[in-house]
Amino acid sequence: MTRVALFQSTTGIDPSANGRALVDAIEQSAARGAEMLFTPEMSGMLDRDSQRASKVLRPQEEDPVLAACCEAAERHHLWLHIGSLAVLTESGKVANRSFVIDREGKVRATYDKIHLFDVDLPTGESWRESNVYSPGSNVVVVNGTPVGKLGLTICYDLRFPGLFARLAESDADVIAVPAAFTVPTGKAHWHVLLRARAIEAGLFVVAAAQGGRHEDGRTTFGHSLVVDPWGEVLLDMGEERSVGFAEIDLSRISDVRSRIPALNHRRPIPEAVNL
User: Fold this and answer.
1) How confident is the model at residue 179 (pLDDT cuts 50, 70, 90)?
2) Judging by beta carbons within 10 Å of its beta carbon (0-12, 13-18, 19+), is residue 31 exposed, middle or buried?
3) Max Cα-Cα span within the chain
4) Residue 96 belongs to what domain range?
5) Among residues 35, 70, 113, 149, which one is catalytic?
6) Strand spans (E) along 146-187
7) Which of 21, 157, 177, 247 is most buried (CB neighbours < 10 A)?
8) pLDDT category, 72, cuts 50, 70, 90?
9) Does residue 45 contact residue 6 with C-beta atoms inside 8 Å?
10) Has residue 84 been placed in a domain?
């Protein structure tokens, strides 16, 4: 049994303040016996004013939030999954990048969000991530974490089951889904999609989320979840900013897959025939 922590944050526009909140969450998680902490998408800064945000963006090697988290992870001997930070790339664009940090404070793996959120919502909200961000191209599974093999995704990736199938086929035990879901889409789809992905893949899903009213004016859905391979919700953190905890028993995976061995029954899907 592995105890994990999730930080449900209301990240603002000041990276230094957000970094302090992350370090505090690391301290709380270690003090309460967690072996690994999961944080949301855009843990270092959440700002839809791209011009203002560009003034504080840094390459990965110079990012102060990442440096503070690595130091705190080493000090508290805690594994950390930073759901994502916005970091500058050599191309001049920005990567929405996850980081897995071990208990020695070393970055063990990164993942850049593959699917970018470009949409006009009925509420009048318009999002064009591709204007700022460059998409990732690699599917990533991290070996040797406290939760076994950890598959990495970010937010909008949730809507693409093929990615989750690939992670399951790569023997992931847990898939992380850090997010900053809008309220309308969160109410409609967050719980059902996360439960579906866990059931389809026959593994655990850990989804640390942003929640509440943010400094840049947006409101996010919250409800950070941990879902087991049967689709049972082990943790739902509601709408408040906090650190939550759940116990993950990896033996549950083989138990569920022995009852529903769907992964063993997959076959290549032929082209559709239009009649």
Assistant:
1) very high
2) exposed
3) 64
4) 2-261
5) 113
6) 148-152, 174-176
7) 177
8) very high
9) no
10) yes
70 is catalytic: no
* Cα separation, 224 vs 206, whole angstroms: 8
Residue 155 appears among annotated catalytic residues: yes
> Residue 272 falls within a domain, yes or no?
no
Condensed to tens digits (0 to 9), the pLDDT of residues 108-120 reads 999 999 998 766 6
Is the CB of residue 228 less than 8 Å from the CB of residue 251? no
Query: How many structural domains are present in the chain?
Result: 1
| Residue type at position 130 | S
d(CA 239, CA 206): 16
The domain that holds 136 is classified in CATH as: 3.60.110.10
For CA atoms 239, 245, 250, 251, give the dihedral sign. Answer: negative
Catalytic residue among 41, 70, 129, 149: 41
The amino acid sitting at 151 is G
Query: How far is the first Cα of the chain from the last one, in angstroms, to the nearest whole number?
Result: 52
Q: Catalytic pick from 35, 69, 70, 155?
A: 155
Q: For residue 218, what are the contacts with CB-CB under 8 A and spacing of at least 6? A: 46, 48, 125, 182
At position 140, the amino acid (one-letter code) is V
104 carries an active-site annotation: no
